[in-house]
Amino acid sequence: MRATLMKNWIISFALASAASAAAVPAFAGQPPAHRLIPWGQARGQMQLLEAPDGRYGPEALAACGSRVLLLDAVGGAIVEMDRELREVGRFPVAPGGTGLGTAADCDAVAILYSREVHVHDRSGKRIARRSLPEELRFVTGLSLAAGGDVLLEERAARTFRLGAPPAGTSPAAADELDAVDAGLRVGRSVLSVEVVSGAAFRVIDHGAATTAAEDRGRREIAVGRDDLFSARLVGIDAQERVVVDQSFLVGQAPVVVERRVAAFDAAGNVAWSVALPAARHALSSRDVAVAGGGQELVAMVAAPDGLHLLRWALPAAGDAPAELRLPRSLPLTFAAPRGLPDPDFSAPLGAVAPQAELVTRDEMLAIADDYVRRSWYASSCNIGSGSCSGVDVVTPSWVTVGSHAGLPYKWGGFSTVDEFVDGIAACAFAGDKTTTGWGGSCAVGVDCSGFVSRCWKTTTKYGTSTLEQISDVISASAMAAGDVYNKASSHVRMLVARNSDGTLDMVESYAGSNAWRVDYTVRTIGDNSGYTPRRYFYVTGDTGVKPGTADNPIEIVGTELTDNNSTADSAEELIDSYGCAPGTNESGPEVYYSLALEATSTVTVTVSDGYGVDVDPHLLSGLEPASCIARNDVSFTVDKVYPGDYYIVADTWVNGSGDVLDGDYELTVEIAANGRSRVVVLNGGVRTAAAPPPPAR
Fold first, then answer.
1. Could you tell me which of 444, 576, 645, 648 has the fewest CB atoms within 10 Å of its CB?
2. What is the distance between the alpha carbons of residues 333 and 337, in angstroms, rounded to a whole number?
3. What is the dihedral of CA 415, 421, 422, 427, to 10 degrees?
4. In whole angstroms, how far apart are CA 237 and each of 140, 213, 233, 279, 643?
5. What tens digit of pLDDT does each residue of 494-546 get?
6. pTM for this structure?
7. DSSP character for 524?
């Protein structure tokens, strides 16, 4: 298998979208094994928690041969299912786990918690407990290596090994593994996935390289549509077809997602696929896996009537492309979890937001990080339950006597970090997980909207229903650090970064299955179904200059950007005409964007504006009019843009009467690496690269 994968994946190439876009006929095989476990606390049922930020139930599943393991995070148990999806074993674990990994021989399981990993043997006995080092914050997966080391995948493409701590030390150090060890282990190969554009993703075989400096084996796979947001690697089936969990963004505000799990063969064709509900009745970190030695697909679907467990027998090699059948009894459409209405102490809806202090994105993230990392000591007086003016207060169960890092959740809380520390010293309760009565004056902590309000440096607590007073709706594809996904009267979470596979690093004050704290999380775009992307009015660049100027351009990160902006708000008027169209009067105000290309790429830029507005897009290699590479009234595509730094300028046209047609516009940028800048050739076992021609300036 190893040799075959290396042979298939060493050379980089793009596949035609028609191969993946072809219609997928119905699979004539057997319907999946299907079992429904109702929600409830009785024997044979699965527990469900109604939390302020949504519902929580089984957090993850993993496959070991023909067995399926479920992490019941609310009930605190690992549930073992046989091939027919019948429960055959169960052992207790600490509640609140967020991830599940297994050893290759299935004799041990690892459970991820907020800041530590527990390892249990086959009998359920906990055999190891290891703290996570400070540098590990965004863990996307875990597994167990030979010798008991824990492998933690972070940010979708980095892997760390967490070994047993040396005697007398804690926590253990984590060693970042070389490129040949990164990603998801599949047999003896190591794979990862990254989104190239809205129409393609790239699969990387890290095992095709022997050092981190070498080119890695990679292939680009077109998906036959142009709204791909994420592509999470699930595994590889028995026929060596790569299985990918794809999310397509079909609605921006609020977010609407379509989801499809598909297997791609060596030619990039779809071998089989299945559509799964994108919204989850109960949130989970991993709900699909390849099982049975690569011959089966298992999934859990959290629906209003309970947890549906599904297992399909996968088509064999040579079979026609297959659409896996779903049980008719499976609900395919239902609302994403809303959560509980949050406390709101801000001005009434419709009130005008006061002028606020400008805040940079770096400041937002620094404030958030202080909430996650601040150390404090809990005494017995900070723990327990009580009453404040008739309001019940209960501290989260993770708060025990001793040292802690990170602030606890408090329903209705708006404490700064320093106010929290002072309150703890004054014997206030450390957080409050009750969801009635707006918290209580004798507890300190912060809830979801209070946390975002503090990160945005507001002096008033805004709730999820009134954040619209101080923020604009933006597209999900335009989200940047410090922007939020908000669901009115429910929950809000803040973006830190978008990973290469499209998953989202976020920070939030949330309940989870047993979290009740401010912490970093990794979410999918499907987890944000029903949320609206928003940007704070008073966010500014790190230089203190409003983003969009030549000195502080809006940075284009990743392979696409959608930005809703206005030249009427810009005072920048540096260029009146461009070398690529010297007779066109562009003397109105402009907005600047920066673009750094690491590979030769195709760049498409489009501007949409309204009646009485005329904003034109331009691509420049510098800030001088003579550096113009391309422009158009509406849209242009440049097929070969070489590696380097560029500017995109949205400039305002002035008509023959001298009218400045400035105003609102939407700019979209799409970048697709065309692979022409680096051609990897195997020549006598030595890798050589063809150098690109010099950029045309």
1. 645
2. 12
3. 100
4. 21, 29, 12, 25, 37
5. 999 888 889 999 999 999 888 899 999 999 999 999 899 999 988 886 444 56
6. 0.73
7. -
